[in-house]
Amino acid sequence: MDFTLAVLGLAGAIALFLWGTHMAQTGVQRALGPRLRQILGQTLSNRTKAFFAGIGLTLLLQSSTATGLMAASFTANGMVALLPAMAVMLGANVGTALIVQVLAFDVSAAAPVLVLVGYLMFRRTHNALVHDLGRALIGLGLMLLALHQMLGILTGVEDAVAFRAAIGIVAAVPALGFVLAALAAWGVHSSVAVVLLVISLASRGALPLDVAFISVLGANLGTAINPLLEAGAATPEARRLPLGNLANRIAGVALTLAFVGPLANWSAGLLSPAHAVAAFHLGFNLLFALLTLPLLTPFGRLLDRLLPAQPAADPAAPLYLDRAARETPLVALGGAAREALRLADVLEQMLHGAHDALVKNDRKLIEETRARDDVLDGLNTAIKKYLTSIDAEGLNEDDQRRLNQILVFAMHIEQAGDVIDRNLLPHVSKRLKRGLIKGDSDAELAELMDRLVLNLRTAASLFMTEDARVARQLAEEKVTFRRAEREAVAAHFDVMRNDRVGQGMQSAIHLDLLRDMKLINSLIIAAAAYPVLDRAGELLPTRLAPAS
C-alpha cells in the first residue's frame, strides 16, 4: 500500500472512530437525558461515590470529557464542592482506561452486529428511548470497525520504508513519541483514540514497549490540556477543576517516567504488547487515582488559594455559559438555566428598587433601578446566543423543549424589566416631579409590589421544578391584579365625575402604576407558568366563551 494513501486511510479510520464515539455519547445522552445529571448530582456529596460515578458515567458516555464537563458545570455553578468534582475526574480517567482495556481485545467481530441491531432500533422513531439507544449502538459499532480498519492499514504499511523510518525516529527519541502523543490527544480531544493507535503499533512490533508506555503517558497528559485551555477566560471557580486535573496528570507522568523501563521489561514476559500497553494505561490511572483521593483536601485548598473567587467586573457578564459545554447539551442547558435564574435575581432587585422608590419618593433610587435593565438586556442576549450555538444533533425532544423553555423564560423576564424601566419607573418619577401627595392608595401599591416579588420567586422555583400545581396557583394570581385594576378604574371615574381635579392626576398615575404591575405580573406568569400548564394540557387557547 502506498504510504501516502495509508496515512490518509489511518486519518480516516481515526475520524470514523471519533465520529462513532460522538454518536455513542449523544445517543446515551438523548436516551437517559437529565437522569445522568441527576445521578451525578446525587453522588457528588461523597468523594468515594463521586469517584465510582465518574467511572460509570464515562463507561456509559464513552468520553471522560463529557463526564468532566458535567462535574465542572456543578463546580462552576457553586452547586457542589471542588473535592467531589475532582474525584469524579479521577474516576473519569479510570473509566477511559477501562474502555481501552476492553477495546484492546479483538472485538471487531461484534461491530456488524452492533450496527445492525442499532440500525433496527434507530428506525423505531415512535419510541424515543429505543431510537436513541440504537444511535448509541451504531456509534459503538463504528468505533469497532474503525479499530479493525486501523489495524489493517498498519499491517499493510509496516514494511514501507517511509513508515519504518518515521517509527524508527520515534523509537530512537522516546521524548518525541511523548510529545506527538500529547499533541494528537489534544488535537482530537480523545486519549482513547491515541492510546489505541499506540496499542496497534506496539502489537505490530513497530514500537518498543518502553516507547509505547511513554507515548501513553503523553496521551494522558494531552487530554488534560484541552479543558484548561477552553476554560481560559472563565471564572476562577471554573478553572480550578481543569487545573487540578492537569496538575495531577503532570505529577503522575513525572513520577511514572522513572519506572517505565523496569515496567516494560517486566511486562514483556507476561503479556502481549497490546495487553501490556492497555494494562499500563489502566494501572497508571488507577494507581494515581487511589494515591490522589486521600490528598484531595489539601490539594483543593491549594487550588482555592491559587484561584480565589473574584466578583464579576461586569454584572451583565454571564457566569455559567461554558463554551466548552456546547457540544454536551446536557451540561449546556443546565448552565443556561442557571444563567436564566440570574435574570430573575436582577428583576427582583429592580422590583425592590421600584418599591423603595415608590415608598420613599427617592429620585436616586429610580436611576439606580433603571440602570439594572441594561444587565437584563445583556444577560438575555448572551443566553440567546449561547442556546442557538448548542450542537442541535445532541438534543432529544425533551432537550429541545427545555431549550425553548429557557428562551421563553429569559425573554419574558427581560420584557418585564423593560416595563419597569420604560413604564413603571417613569410613572413613579412623574408622581415625584409633580409633588403629588401620598394617599391611602400607596399601601395598596406597596402590597402589590410585594406580591410581584413573591410571584417572581415562585416563577423561578417553578422554572426548575415544572410542578403543574404550582403553575396553576401562579396563574391564578392574574385575578388579583385584574381585580385591583378594575377597582382602580372605577375609583378614577368616580373622581372625574365629581370633578375633583386635584385628585384626578394622582388617580390617573395610580391607575397607570397598577396597569404596569398587572403587565409585569402577566409576563412573570407567561415566563414560567404557561409553558408548564400548556405541556400538562391545562391551558385553554382562549378566554372567550364558545360561540352560540
Q: Please, could you describe this protein's structure?
A:
The protein has 548 residues and is mostly helical. The chain folds into two domains: 3-306, no CATH class; 323-535, Phosphate transport system protein phou homolog 2, domain 2 (Methane Monooxygenase Hydroxylase, Chain G, domain 1, Up-down Bundle). It is 80% helix and 0% strand. It has 22 helices and no strands. The N and C termini lie far apart (82 Å). The model has no long low-confidence stretch (mean pLDDT 81).
Give keywords.
single chain; 2 domains; Methane Monooxygenase Hydroxylase, Chain G, domain 1; mainly alpha; 22 helices; 548 residues
What is shown here, in short?
The mean pLDDT is 81. By secondary structure, this protein is mainly alpha-helical. 80% of the residues lie in helices and 0% in strands.
